[in-house]
Each structure stands twice: as C-alpha cells, then as structure tokens.
C-alpha cells in the first residue's frame, strides 16, 4: 500500500493471478480489503486468453503474476483496450528484460518487478525507479528494471560472504547470499527443528537468493543458490543465460540447468521451448548467445522441449528438469 511500492488504494481493481496459498496472493488480497479496492479473483483458469479477458472486461488497474503467466497473456492483449492498467507487478522469478520491454511496447507499461517470499510476508523489495532514474535513456531504465529495486520500508537486508554474516560491499559486483530481517520477517518454522539452518545465529533469514547490491541500494538477483552452476571454479548464473535466451524472438521459454561434466564438474544445458510455428537449431541459439555472454558461460548443449515444467505457483521447476536430465551426456563429455 506504500506509494513507492505497488501503491494499492481504494480506486484500484486488483487481479492477483497467484494461488491463494502463496502467502495469500502476495498480500494483495489483504491490501485490497484494507483499502476498499475491488478484487477480481481469476479462479482455476489461468490461461493467457482467460486472464487477458478479465483485464479488459473488468478494467483491472493492478494485475500481478509470475513471468510465465505474463508470457502467455502478452499475445492475447494485442489490439485490446488495456488503458485501465496502471501497474503490472511481476515476481516469483527473475523478470526477463525482453518480456518487460514487450509489455511496455504493447501496453505502455513495463512489468514492475518485485521480490519477496512467504517468509517475508511477502513483498520485501519493489523496483520503483528513482526520480533520477526516470531521466535516463529508455535502454538504461530497462536495464534497471531487471533489478528488484530497493528494499521495502521496515525491512533490513544484507548480502554476505558464503556461510558467514560478513556483509559484502554495495558495489554492484560482489555477490553473496541475500539475507533479511525485520518485524514481519520469519524468525523460525513452526515445529521443525531442522529449520535452524535457514536462519543465521544473529536472527536473519537466509533467503537462498544470490544477489549483488549497487551503490544506491538496488538489489539484483543473480540466482538461487541451488540453481547456480559451478563450472571449473567459476559460478555461472542460470538466470543470466535464461534472460539472454528469452530475448531471442523465436524462443517462448527457456530454462538452464547444470549437468555433470568430467572436467569442469558442471556445464550449462539450455532447455528451450520454440514459439509455435517457428523453427530453430542449436547452432542458431548458440550464435544468438555468443555476443551476449562470455565463452565459458555458453551452454555446452541445447535441447528442445515442448514446455518447461512448472511448480504449483507457475515458476520454472528446475528440480524436475534436473531429474529429467540427470543422466544426460554432453557432446564433449
């Protein structure tokens, strides 16, 4: 409800395209009731056409969902009246710049990236651009929108060295685990003695997200700790590679996982979904990535799949992919 967050107010018509069990639709249901806003509950049909129809017919002002939802909705908004929208919060996974910019081109609004967890009750950071940011060229603004922005009022955050509580500098380069603390940040899990590993000795929540922070306090998520790919002593961010993959005009979805390699321990495997009616080769995918990534970050192979498996909240299920490709042999392995 804060102005520099989502800014929910009485005049809003809110569409939370998020299951109710997920921190009660990211808190939007509570904010709607607290302010007297209208709530549009989407029901079981979360398909692109169904969500787009609700946005247009109910004159939704705030529509919130995960990136996979907005990928499916975007083509259904073409030529439709979306003038009621003022804010499209997106969270649950890193927001590809290409997707956010596609929304800006179609609706006039880029996606508003937010970050949080059930344990943070739930929104902990929102990428509302600063006054000075809005004077930058559009390309630079688009790059800033790939961050999750500033930590929310009332929440403390720090990025620390692995397995320590030693804070790293806010230099936009030093990466470590993102940790949070505050009056509505979880301090324990009920009746689960094993959960102490999720909290530091001084009481901070270990989020499991790897992040860097710039000099102005903007947080950029690099990856989940469990999704980072350790290759020859270097960490490869699966999120960075995925974002570049999904900037290809023929790619609908892409997820990157680490698979075993006899020399480098792990190497990236790109799992790619081609847009309907398009054709694409492995060579074309790699060629697209070469000018965008360092050579050691390039996937060792590309597999084409019909769909990236999803979790119950619509996130990419990399655990499922890792199980599916557990015995995958890379070309040079």
Describe this structure in words.
The chain has 333 residues and is α/β, with parallel strands linked by helices. It folds into 3 domains: 13-151, 3-Layer(aba) Sandwich (Rossmann fold), CATH 3.40.50; 156-224, Luciferase, Domain 3 (Luciferase, domain 3, Roll); 229-324, ANL, C-terminal domain (GMP Synthetase, Chain A, domain 3, 2-Layer Sandwich), CATH 3.30.300. The protein has helices spanning 23-26, 28-35, 48-57, 67-73, 97-107, 138-144, 238-245, 282-289, 318-324; strands at residues 13-16, 38-39, 62-64, 89-90, 112-116, 123-126, 150-151, 156-160, 176-181, 205-213, 219-224, 229-231, 234-236, 251-261, 265-274, 301-304. Strands 4-5-6-7 form a 4-stranded mixed beta sheet, with no helix packed on it. A 4-stranded antiparallel beta sheet has the order 8-9-10-11. Strand 5 and strand 6 (123-126) form a beta hairpin.
């Amino acid at each position: 409800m804060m102005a520099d967050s989502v800014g929910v107010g009485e005049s809003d018509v809110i569409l939370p395209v998020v299951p109710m069990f997920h921190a009660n639709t990211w808190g939007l249901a509570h904010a709607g009731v607290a302010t007297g806003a209208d709530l549009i509950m989407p029901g079981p049909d979360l398909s692109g056409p169904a969500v787009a129809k609700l946005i247009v017919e109910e004159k939704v002002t705030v529509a919130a969902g995960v990136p996979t939802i907005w990928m499916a909705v975007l083509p259904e908004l073409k030529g439709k009246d979306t003038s009621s929208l003022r804010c499209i919060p997106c969270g649950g996974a890193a927001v590809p710049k290409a997707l956010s910019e596609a929304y800006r081109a179609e609706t006039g609004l880029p996606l508003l990236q937010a970050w949080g967890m059930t344990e943070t009750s739930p929104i902990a950071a929102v990428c509302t651009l600063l006054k000075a940011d809005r004077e930058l060229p559009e390309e630079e603004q688009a790059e800033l929108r790939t961050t999750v922005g500033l930590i929310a009022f009332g929440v403390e955050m720090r990025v620390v060295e692995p397995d320590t509580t030693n804070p790293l500098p806010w230099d936009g380069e030093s990466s470590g685990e993102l940790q949070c603390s505050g009056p509505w940040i979880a301090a324990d899990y009920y009746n689960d003695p094993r959960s102490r590993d999720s909290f530091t000795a001084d009481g901070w929540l270990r989020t499991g997200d790897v992040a860097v922070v710039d000099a102005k306090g903007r947080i950029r998520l690099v990856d989940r700790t469990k999704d980072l790919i350790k290759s020859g002593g270097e960490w490869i961010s699966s999120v960075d590679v995925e974002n570049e993959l999904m900037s290809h005009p023929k790619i609908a979805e892409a997820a990157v996982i680490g698979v075993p390699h006899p020399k480098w321990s792990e190497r990236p495997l790109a799992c790619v979904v081609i847009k309907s009616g398009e054709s694409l080769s492995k060579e074309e995918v790699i060629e697209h990535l070469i000018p965008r990534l360092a050579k050691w970050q390039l996937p060792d192979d590309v597999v084409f799949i019909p769909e990236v498996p999803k979790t119950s909240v619509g996130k990419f299920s990399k655990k499922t992919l890792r199980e599916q490709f557990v015995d995958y042999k890379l070309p040079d392995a």
